[in-house]
TrEMBL record:
Domain of life: Bacteria
Record-level Gene Ontology MF annotations: ABC-type transporter activity
GO CC, alphabetical: membrane
Subcellular location as annotated: Membrane
Transmembrane segments: 52-71, 83-105, 125-154, 161-185, 191-209, 246-269
Name assigned to this protein: ABC transporter permease
Low complexity: bias regions: 1-15
Keywords from the named record: Membrane, Transmembrane, Transmembrane helix
Organism: Streptomyces coelicoflavus
Amino acid sequence: MSVVPADALRGAAPAAEERHVTGRPAELGPRARLWPSLVAVYRAQLSRARVARIPLLFVATFQSIGIMILMRGVVDGGGEAQAVVAGSAVLVVAFVALNLLAQYFGQLRASGGLDHYATLPVPPAAVVLGTAGAYASFTAPGTVVTAVFGCLLFGLPMTHLWVLLAVIPLAGAALAGLGAALGLLAPRPEFATLLGQLGMSAALLLGVLPPERMPQLVRLARDLLPSTYGVEAFARTFGERPDWGFVLGDLAVCAAVGVISLAVATWAYRRAAVR
């Protein structure tokens, strides 16, 4: 037999009486706002990616550098060299932001990790945007190293490499949104991995190879790939007098695709979290 102090009973009585009178449970605190939640998720995911994904970032960088070395025996210079260097640089973004993010969300959904995020008072958009932003920004060092190496290898000017400050986040947002959507919509994590690999292979074949040597049907498929416009924007800056109107146009397409793909990923997150 346990003994409960009388003071505790007297303290609990008003609360019980208040619940009986009001007839409703105590109200929860307000949900966190989008921006603070996004920053918190971004920092957490960036810390996690920095520990777990650094070896894979080296793989992505060395893969792109190896492709440029192989293409050096086929391509001498000119527009084809510009396409190879730009495509290899953006391929680093595709490897991490599309391939790895598709695998991450596929595994998160299969393991029940989405239930953890669903219990947190954060908007679904903050989870998707924060995670996608962390993976996209994680690609910046490898992309810069690949671009510099490619310029030295093919003798291209490095005057306008600063355009990567726009190419990396915009192309990264478009590819990260696509990768997150693939991972969240795939019925099994194996399918998410497969779709991520196929997407990265498409970015490799359609982004690195010079478009002049592609059949017309393959060029149409290339235009549907989000990373293509980041490649085109970067490749145009290697000319003596870049047409900045076309560069801004390609970047605008990247931004529009990024908004759409991240919106689809947010919808896919809500759909997967309620199941």
